[in-house]
Amino acid sequence: MTPTKNDHASAGVTKKLCQWIQDINLADIPEDVHVRAKYLILDGLACAVVGSRLPWTETAAQTVFSMELAGNCKVWGYDDKAVTPLSAALLNSTAIQAFELDDWHLSAPLHSNSIILPALFAAASQQATSNSTSINGTRFLLSVIVGYETGPRVGLGLYGAHMLTRGWHSGAVFGPSASAAAVSKLLNLPTDAIEDALGIACTQAGGLMSAQFGSDVKRMQHGFAARNGLFAALLAQNGYRGIKNVYDEGYGGFLAMFGQGSGKEPACVPAEVCKELGETWQSRLIRVKHHSSMAGTHCTIDCVQALQDKYPDKLSDLDAIAGIRIGMTEAAFHHGGFDVKRPLTTTSAQMSAAYTAAVQLVDGQVLPNQFRDEQLDRDVVWNLIGKMKCFYALDLGDERYAQRVTITLNDGTELSETLDNPRSVSPGLSNEGILEKWRRLTQGIMDEKTRDRIERLVLDIETLEDVRILDDLMSTCVSNPLLN
Q1: Contact residues for 205 (Cβ-Cβ < 8 A; gap 6+)
Q2: Consecutive sets of 10 residues in the chain, 484 residues long: mean pLDDT of each?
Q3: Domains in the chain, ordered, with CATH?
Q4: Which pTM does this prediction carry?
Q5: Which of 73, 112, 412, 476 is the most exposed place for a label (fewest CB within 10 A)?
C-alpha cells in the first residue's frame, strides 16, 4: 500500500500530545500545579456566578430555552433549567466570560476556565445519563489540568498573543483543542480517539476579534470553543473519525492554515505543541484578574493608580488635567488602544484602555460597578476620554504587558509612570487572593450556605465521588450583580 501523507507524519507533535494526554496521571503533576488548579476552578465558578444573570447572558439563555426541550445538563444560575450538553457548555461558558473577570494565559491568551469547566461538567452529566457512570473529583481535576496545558501549547504554535495583533480572537482559535483534550481525558479515550477528537475540534476553530467593538458575541466566543471541543470528544467516543495529525498536516492543517499571513518566519511553530511536555507547566502561566476589564488594560489602570498614589493632591482636581498619553506594546494597543465613541457598550468599555483609565481616575477602581449603564455615559468620564491618546510605543520593547501613562496638567507639569507588568501578572493573585475574590464576588448574589459549600467542595475536590454535586449547586438561582 502506498503511504499517505498522514502516515509520514505519524511521529509528529499531534500523536505525541495525544499519547501524553492518555498517559498522564495526577501523580505525574507537581503538587503546586494541582493545588493551584483547584483555586483556578474556584475563580472560574466565581466568574460564572457573577455572569450568569447579566443581561447578555440572559438573552442567550432565554434564546436557547425557547428553542430546546429540557435536557440533562444544568444551566448555572437557573435552578429550574436543564438543556442538552452542547447548549450547557455554551451557556455556562458565556456566564464565565460575561464580565471580563476570568483567568487568562500570559503567553498564549485564552480564558481557560470558560472553555474547560463548562465542557467537563456537561460531559460528566452526559456520562451519568448515557451509561450511569459517575465522574469523581480526582478524574475531573486531572482533566482540567490537561485542558490547561493543551490550549496554551497549541496557541504557542501560532506565536500566542500575535494572533490578537492579527485580529483573531485567540482563545476561540486555541480553545477547541483545550476543550477536546480535557473531555477526552475525562472520558478516558484511547490515543487514536483523542487524535480524532482534536481533529474534529480544530476544524471548528475560529473567532473574530472585531467582536470586541460593542457586540454581545464577544462574551460567547469561548463558549463556541467549549461546545465544539465537547462535541468533538463525544463524536470521537462513538467512533467518529477526525482529521489525523491535525497540527502537523501541511495542506489544510490547523497550524498551517491559521499561520498563513502571520508575517513570521516560520509561519507557525509545531514543535511548541509538545515542547517540554510534562516538564514545563503552562498552568503556572495562568493569571487571575484584579480588575473587571480586558487583561491588556490592567497595566494602564495600575499606572494610573500609581500616579494617584504618588500625586494625590495634583490628581484630585480632574479639571486640571490637560492631556493623557497611554503608551502600549503592539498586542495591547491593537486589542485595547482603539478610539472609543459615545455612547459605549459594556463590552467596548471593558476592552478599552481609555475608558478604564478614565474611570480609575474618577472612581479609584475598575470593578463591575464601573460598567453599569448609568456609569457608562458620565460627562466626567467622557471629558477625560476626550483628552486621551493611546499609541503603540516602540520603546517599550517586547514586554507584552509594559505600558506608560503620562498625564499633562494645565500648568505644563508632566506626571509619568511606566510599569513592565500589572499586579495581576507580577506577582499575580495568590491562592489566598483568589479565595478572597470568590467570597467578595459572590457576596449578596448567591445564598451563603450554597457559596460556602461550593468553596469547601472545590478546595477538597479529590474526595468527591461525583462532581455533579458541584454542577447542581452552581445551578442555584443567583441575582444580577448590576442590580444590587
Answers
A1: 172, 173, 174, 175, 176, 177, 225, 228, 254, 258
A2: 41 95 97 98 97 95 94 93 97 96 95 98 96 95 98 98 95 98 98 98 97 93 98 98 98 98 96 97 96 94 97 96 96 91 91 96 93 93 97 88 96 97 94 96 94 98 97 94 80
A3: 5-289+446-483 (1.10.4100.10), 295-419 (3.30.1330.120)
A4: 0.93
A5: 412
